[in-house]
Amino acid sequence: MHVLGRRRRGAQVAVVDPRGGKLVRTGDLHLALRPGSDAALAAGLLRELDVLGLVDAAFVAERTVGYDAARRAAEPWTLARTAMVTGVAGTSVTALARLLGQSRRALLLHARGAEQQVTGTDNVLAWINVALAAGHAGRRGSGIVTLTGQRNGQGAREHGQRADQLPGYRRIDDPADRGVVAERWGVDPATLPGRGLTYMEILAAAGRGEIAGALVISTNPAVSGPNSAGVRASLDALDHLVVVDPFLSETCRYASVVLPGSTFAEDEGTVTTTDGRVVRIDQAVAPPALRGDLDVLRGLAHRFGVRRQFDFHAGREVFAELCRVSEGGPADYAGLDWQALRDRGGIFWPAPHSRPAGTPRLHLDRFAHPDGRARFTPVVPVGPVVVPDAAYPLVLATGRHRDQYLSGNQTRRIADLNRRAPEPVVEVHPDAAVTAGLVEGSRARLVSRQGRAELAWAPNPALRPDTLFVPYHWPGINELTSDALDPVSGIAAVKHTPVALSPVGRATVAPTAEPHRPPRHAAR
What we know:
The protein is built from 17 helices and 20 strands.
């Protein structure tokens, strides 16, 4: 809505997406890139900024390092080569380079589209290179914004949701960080665990019998996990699964124990918005089961013999702990005050004791490196590991629908939302629909190397003819997607799945017996 509002006030919008969607309006610059070619497009843009003389030379010299190496890596990506690989006309690449290079302020916003690919890390780094070259970072009204996919996605990352972190964005494999946190917790640093497994690594290890038990809190991998058949097999292989969720999800079918947990209105605590604003949440009602998420975690910790460090009975006590332990870290909450969060409607971190009013804008003076300079990264674009072929000629990308949310465990229970979006609908370019033999009112069959699904379909002329799009909020969609991972981030490549398309009732290629899996650690 902020983007739409800025457009109404005269801002120019450029959309990089294989799918047009409702965000693209007349007058916008739409670069409908071929799925999996994000880094190539960014490399072509970086080169074009340099060729046109639109690199912010003063910003690059004063506030960054590594530009020359990044430019050399992008040098082969001429307009012709970029157009050939991405499917985006060279004139559009030039237009976007001029728009970024000549604008006084610009925001580069991305969500999961660039990330959920086997080259997701390189994609994001390549776009950071573009923003830095144009000088759109560390300035008011400019920046690179990662749009989190769910409420408090930012806050959870700050304090250890990822298994390579300690509170305050400290790293679990950094001896200095381990020492600080251990001292504040009153434990020996040697007792802190090492780097843990990612979400997908946990499921894979469970499938191999290396993990016997798991605790799942308010997530639904049986629907949201890629390659659903593999996810279900992993859940089934567990000896003991505990699910904490206010609503009985599809994952609960595999559970030994289900606890109701609590919703946001039944908790107190904080959430952090994507721009770093810490916002206080007050409990509106008590959980019907009288035992919320915090009570479950405290009870588990006490049964494991860890009482002193987990003697929390209210969210504000956890907040006080985060303030104490995060002091001096990148996400420093030390100066935040519980009442001030309510009075001021939220405060931006870092907020050390010396600056309790917080920091509304990061990086105005220095970036988060010892020398205060941002880093360019030489990115050599490579394509997806698994590509379309004669058997699977189209690429499926999954995404979101306005009227459903995540795995649908909450929203699919709401009648008004189900009337708006009762089932998943695969979007197909009209030309692709003709080629596949789809007719109005029929259903479409999608087959990938992992599985198959039968769905309603709708034409979308703003979609690339080689691309299909379907929202993922319903069971069955991730039967199709691959569990191939980015070797750095460990994120699954659900934005790029080769598929075959046909009308229901026509014989099609069967899924391969074993899903194609790329090497876990591809050469970089």
